[in-house]
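seq:
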Amino acid sequence: MNASPHSTVSQPQTAGAWLAVWTLCQRELVRFFRQKNRVIGAVGQPVLFWLLFGSGFGSSFQMSNEGQASVTYYQYYFPGTLVLIVLFTSIFATISIIEDRREGFLQAVLVAPVSRLVLVLGKVLGGSLIALAQGVLFLLLGLTIGVSFSPLQLLAVVGYLFAIAVGLTALGFILAWRLDSTQGFHAIMSVFLLPMWLLSGAFFPANDTVLQYVLCINPLTYAVAGLRRLLFQMPFPDLPSGSVCLWVTLGFAAFCLAGAWWSARRTTEGDLLS
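struct:
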């Protein structure tokens, strides 16, 4: 029985689309690691915050968990720093969209015979893998402060980090797509993304009622809480459950991916004329 003409045509098209996705992803990886200042900036500042604040608050912070081993501030702050590294790396990776528009590369991709979804997936996958790689490097640093994990735990944390990275990279795509200035991008990061991280429970536990409401609507709250549960395997009664954290994180990633695709489809004429 012969295959239908439709199936024989769609298979090469699908293979070509995934090849385009991988090509764009690979370009992001090569571009990032050639720029050593981006590597240092994305990891250096969060690690510096972790060391400074950890040493400053370490003697005054102690969190007990129902008779189990207590959590030091270095350990409490560790998942938040991990999310901050993923945030910085993911967002900085999407600055390449602004640079590509200036250089004309973005216009060349837009007129190529590929869908906008291919562009979104290539950019987001590249940025997410970069963020994941740096997050895993910092995760291994946790072994020096008593953060231990089994191979199964490590796989779960890496998968969870990848979901966080996809959501944050797609969010960065949405922001960068509308901008034509890297200065404007950094301004948005300062007034929107950093407060979003600060109000996630990464830096300190929420004891105020109003602050707790803010944490409930912040998607990064569930990213940090999920990592904290995966890493320490302790009962944290004030944190959302592990299943809630997982579904909110996956939903955030899917929502931002859909938003990035929608944004890319809405700006055809402006990009072709820029």
